[in-house]
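REQUEST FORM: STRUCTURE PREDICTION
Request ID: SP-0412
Submitted by: Lab K.M.
Chain count: 1
Length (residues): 383
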Amino acid sequence: MNIWLISPYHAGSHRAWAEGYARCSRHTVSLLTMSGSFWKWRMQGGAIELTLQAQRLLEAGPPPDVILATDMLNLPAWLGLMRRSLPASIPVALYMHENQLTYPWRPGEGRDLSFAMINWLSQLVADVVFFNSRYHLDAWFGELPNLLKHFPDYNHLEQIEEVRARSEVLPVGVEAHAIAKAAGCRLNIGQRGEREHSTEAVASPTHAPLILWNQRWEYDKRPDRFFALLYRLRAAGVPFRLAVAGENFRQSPQEFAEAAERLADVIVHWGYVESREAYWALLAASDLVISTAEHEFFGVSVLEAIAAGAFPLLPNRLSYPELIPAELHPACLYNDEEDLFMKAATRLRSPRPAPPSLRRSVLQRFDWPRVAAAYDERLEALV
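STATUS: Completed
RESULT:
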C-alpha cells in the first residue's frame, strides 16, 4: 500500500513514532511533516502547509491508499483543502499521541478549548481513531462530555459513543531489540542470566548505582518530586550517581538549575544526548530509571531504559500499569512518595537489572517490527 503519514509537530516522540513506523512497515510510508515547534500554530494553520506538501506528492505519484494523521493536525481543515485533489473514498486514521483536553497546561495558563475542539472534530471525520494507551483513551472520553456541555446548545453528546466505538489502542513502538543488543543484554532474555552491567560508558570516580532521568524537562513530569527524592536519599546516606538526559527546552523548570548545583558531585551526565549511540550507552550504564510524572499518555523513555536493563520505579497510575506485567506491579510501581523512597533506597542498596521477564515483555509487546506489523494489519483492514 501507499500510506501518507501526516505529522505536523515532527519532533521528539512524534518524530520517533513516524520514522519508526515508516522504517519498519512492509508498505511504502510517505511522511508529510513540519518542524516540531509552535504547537498552537501547527494545530491552527499547519493544514495549509501540509496541503501544499500533499499536492507535490500527487504531482509526483499516485494518491495514497490510506492516510494516517496525528492529533496535531486540524484534520477537517486539511480534508477540506484537499477536497478537489483526493477521492473522498480514501480511508483516514487519526493517531492520538496526546490531546488538548486532558493534557496539563503550564501553571498560570488558562485552557483554550479551541484546541480540544480541533481534536474532537478530527475524531469525528476519521474512520478510525487510534490511542497510544488505554489510559489515554479512557481519559479522553471520560472528560469529553464536560467539554461539549460547556457549550450552550447543539453539542451532540450522542456522537461520543459513536466515535468511541471506532476507537482502539495501538501502542508506540521503540527500538527495544537494538537497544538491548547495544546494552549487552542477551537477545533471548527468557534464558537465565543477566546482562553484563557496565558503567564504562559514563565516566565517574565512584561505582555507586546510577539513577536516570530521561524524560522531557517539563513541569508535567514533576522534576520537583524527582529531585526532592534525591535530596532525601542523600540525607539518608544512600549512595547514588545521577544522569539527567531528556529534551531540554529553553524555559525548563527551575528545579533543574538548583539540582545541578546541589548534586554536582554525583552528576555524571547532564543534558540532552544528541547521538543515538551515546544515548543508548547512557541507558546501558543506568541502574534505576525513575518517573515522578503527573502526566503520561504512554512512556517511550521508560521502555527504552528497561530494554537496556534499567530497573523501573513508576507511579501506579497514568499509562504506566499498562507497560509493566501485572505480576511485576508490586516491585516496579509505587503508590505514594513514601513508597517510592523505600523502593528506591532498597534498589540502590541492592541494585539489580530489570527482571528478564520484564525485558522480554518489552521486546514482545513494543519492539518496532512487532508494533509496525500491527499497524499494517489495521490499516490494511481499513482499506
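NOTES: The chain has two domains: 2-173+367-382, 176-366.
Reviewed by: T.R.
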